[in-house]
What does this fold into?
Amino acid sequence: MDMSTPPLQKPAANQQIVFGLLRHGITLWNEEKRIQGSKNSPLSQQGRAATAVWARYLEHGRWDRIVASDLGRVKETVAILNTVLNLPLTFDARLRELDWGQWEGKKVQEIKTSAAAELDRQVKAGWNFRPPGGESRAEVLARAKAALLETARHRPGENILTVCHLGVIKCLVLDALGNSYLPSESIRLEQNTMHLLAVSGENLSCLQLNIAPPP
It folds into this structure.
């Protein structure tokens, strides 16, 4: 399902709504390999530059609006995108990243070292993965999916750019593919790519994965 171009034509009124799922730009904490979750870190120079590339690329598509997480790193990403796209914009807290509880702000390697057994137990829990004091992947899916389906009911026939977080995107994509979210069913979602989901009734389905701007 890998493709090199985003949807360029607006769907007819009787066709499925299309969501283009795009992660926020790389942040300082991403570069430090720290867990952000519900906390925030500003975009890095690399993140701002890559977002500007996306803006120029997406300008050639047919997008009707942006729906986005309300966390700061997403707002910063959307501001860069909209200097070019100039689309109507809605922020929705249901598209926030998974709350990583006690692990937020810590480096990934620190968790792998100091909480290896707990991390292994959680990874094997699939959709029930829940960091200490945080929320589960299943809970993230429920709120994020509700946000998209509610948007779809009010915006039939639109292409909607959805700017959020990698954890949210993984939940939506893997659910649409019927994946158990276990390591044995791993599906690679590449960094700095977009993924297209279609909505029909109360269901989401994958149209294209790992769409990237040309080099």
User: Anything to note?
Assistant: The chain has a mean pLDDT of 92.
